[in-house]
Design brief:
Layout: H1 3-12, H2 18-29, H3 43-52, E1 59-65, E2 71-77, E3 83-92, E4 95-99, E5 103-105, E6 120-123, H4 126-142, E7 152-155, H5 165-176, E8 188-192, H6 196-205, E9 210-214, H7 220-226, H8 235-249, E10 253-259, H9 267-278, E11 286-292, H10 305-317, E12 321-324
Parallel strand pairs: 4-7, 7-8, 8-9, 9-10, 10-11, 11-12
Antiparallel strand pairs: 1-2, 2-3, 3-4, 5-6
Helix pairs in contact: 1-2, 4-5, 6-8, 9-10
Amino acid sequence: MNRERIQTIVDEYKLPKFRAKQLKEAFFEHHYSSFDQLTNFPKDLRNKLTEENQVLCLTVNKVFASSDQVTYKALLELHDGLKIESVLMSPKPGLWTACISSQVGCAMKCSFCATGTMGLTRNLTSEEISDQVLFWRQFIAKNDIDTDRLNNVVYMGMGEPLHNTKEVFSSIEELTAEDSFKIGSRHISVSTSGLLKGVKEMAEKFPQVNLALSLHAAKDELRSSIMPINKAFDLEKIRTCLDEYIDSTHRKVFIEYVLLEGENNELSHAVELSKFLKSLKRPELTHTNLIVYNETDSEHKGSTKQKADQFRNHLKSKGLSVTIRKNLGRDIDGACGQLAVKEEN
C-alpha cells in the first residue's frame, strides 16, 4: 500500500477525495492490516474493498522469531511467486529497526554473503520495498513488542539497493513523505557494495539519508577476491567518491567491515584500513562498523573475539570512530549476510 495505490482505489471506486486522507491515516498511522477495519466507511463499501483488495502487495508465508525475541525474520511471497526475506530487530530495548530487501537475490556475488549465491532474479518495485516496512509496523501493532513505533529502516536486506535506484529512490520518497509513512530521512540508511554512480545520485536526492559503504578490505587485491565489484570500482575510486559525498552532504559515512578469520581480520589489515580512512579529507566523518562474520554455507569463518577486539582497538588508537556490531538473529539465519530465502529455520 502506498499513496499511488490509494489514489487508484479512490479513482476506481469513485470515492470522495476525503476518503484518500482516511485511507492514509488508516494504513500509515493506525497500521490497519485489513480494509475490514475501516469502521468509518459504509459497511457495503468496506465489504467490497475487503473482497477485492489486499492491503499488502506481498503475502506473509512465515515469521521466525529468535530465541531471545529481539529479532524476527519474515519470509514474504511476491505476486509472481518469488520470495524474499525481511528482518525486524532490536539492538537495544525499545529501539526497533526494519532491515528491508530491494531485490530478489543479488548480482554482486560477494563471497561471504548468502544472498549473493542466489544470483539476481529481479528488482523489487517501490511498493514491494515499502510494504516490508508497512508489514513490520502492522506486526509491531499486533504483537507484544516493547515499542509503539518502528524507529529505523535500513536497506541492508537482500540485494544491492543502488543496483535498483529507480525503485529504491521511489520507496525512500514514499517512506519520508508527510502524507505517507512520515519517517525522518536520518532514520533511513542505504547500504552499498560500491556502486558509485548511485552514491552520487543519492547525495543529490537524499543528502540526509545515511550512507553505509561495504568495504571489507583496504587493499585492492584482497577486496577484489571477496567482492568482485572492486574490479570496476576500486579503492581509489571509492576514496574519491567518499570525499565528494562528504563534501556535498557534510554527513557521516558508515563503513561496514565484516571480519573473516585468517583473511581480513589481522592487525595488519586494521593498519591498512586505518591508513585508508585517514587518507580521506574528513576521516572524522566516518564510523566503522566491525561485523564478526555470520557463518553461512561458504568456506569463510568468523573472526575470534580476541582479533576483533584487537582490530577495533587499533582503529580507536588512530582516533577513528569504531564499534563491533552486535550480531542479532543468527539462530534464525536473520543476521547480516545470512538472508537467502530458506523455508525452515
